[in-house]
Amino acid sequence: MQFTVQPSGGMVDAESRAASLADPGFGRVFTDHMVSARWNASAGWHDARLMPYGPLVIDPASAVLHYSQSVFEGLKAYRQPDGGVALFRPESNAGRMIDSCRRLALPELPVEDFVAACDLLVRTDAAWVPDGEAASLYLRPLMIADEVGLMVRPSDSVRFLLIASPAGSYFTGPLRPISLWLTQEYVRAAVGGTGAAKCGGNYAASLVAQREAMDHGCDQVVFVDAVEHRWVDELAGSNIVFVLDDGTLVTPELTGAILPGVTRDTVLTLARDAGHRVEERRVDVDEWREGARSGRIAEVFACGTAAVITPVGPLKWPGGEVTAGDGAPGPTTLALRQQVIDLQYGRTPDTHGWLRRVVRPPA
Ligand SMILES: Cc1ncc(COP(=O)(O)O)c(C=O)c1O
């Protein structure tokens, strides 16, 4: 894919940018540029360009607005100790987007084009990559069906977009365990459905349960399987890992209803490297309850690009709650978290080749 470069005439001035970077929050502020490319069945991918960030003009009869034929991704660029910038495992996100596209009957964007788009946007808007601890530039690639017409069928016209947003820590304040609400009424995804794809519909379906969690004073909702309502799947926006008292890591196996997290894979790989036993298998919610009570489950954490590794405190459900360990972040959780962060920020050797240098250090 060849990108036409159309620089922004109205770039944010350095002072306003510095003010935004001082406290970016998550997904609130966007950089000066975005990438766009179009696809249709006859021309394939075409009209790829880097252009000023700005609103889209979209026909109200566009397929995506009605039938949600869309997918997205999430990955980050990190400031390195020498002042350069690196992306973390962009090829993994590119591969997952291809899998999501297959499920949503969207055209595949080749890995090299996905990565080239990320490179171009990060290089162009490198001044937007924050320096601070736990801060990064979050990249949000997305693909939408923009054929105009109300027929329910795969769209013949599609648009790829990539935007970027400086991000602080997803969960604000000092690292504190999050509380989880076990929803019994709502399911996020069923095997054969779209749970393993990163598509907006999965998130739309999770919102009512997330609201239920917040109504019960919890930070996040945890979903169980759609058939027996007892096997732990994941949270609305991150995977979940249990640490047993002998150091074994247990995480729900990828059934097709769970998003295969890049962070999940990173954590499992690092844990195996460090000599932990790792089990990917079904986890019964009763195993969680009883394991937390007996001490067999020593720690629980959530993991994802935005969440990094976040300790889990209480699990609540109608009429009960349980907490693994003493409720404080556990040693394995903290060690893995530090390891992942050190890798992403280039402070430890990148033995798995996960960092992709996109911006060289200043001369
Ligand atoms: C539903 C869901 N599960 C898991 C994850 C974690 O995936 P990753 O580590 O690739 O960010 C995310 C975050 O993107 C998610 O939205």
Would you give an account of this structure?
The protein is of the alpha+beta class. The chain has two domains: 4-167, Aminotransferase class 4, branched-chain amino acid transferase, N-terminal domain (D-amino Acid Aminotransferase, Chain A, domain 1), CATH 3.30.470.10; 178-329, Alpha-Beta Barrel (D-amino Acid Aminotransferase, Chain A, domain 2), CATH 3.20.10.10. Helices cover 26% and strands 29% of the residues. It has helices at residues 14-22, 63-67, 90-103, 111-124, 200-215, 262-273, 285-294, 331-344, and strands spanning 4-5, 33-40, 44-52, 70-72, 75-79, 85-88, 136-145, 157-167, 178-182, 220-224, 232-235, 239-244, 249-252, 278-281, 297-304, 308-317, 320-323, 355-359. Strands 1, 2, 3, 4, 5, 6, 7, 8 and 18 form a nine-stranded mixed beta sheet that branches. Strands 9, 10, 11, 12, 13, 14, 15, 16 and 17 form a nine-stranded mixed beta sheet that branches. β12 (239-244) and β13 (249-252) form a beta hairpin. It is globular. The two termini are 30 Å apart. The model has no long low-confidence stretch (mean pLDDT 95). The protein binds pyridoxal-5'-phosphate.
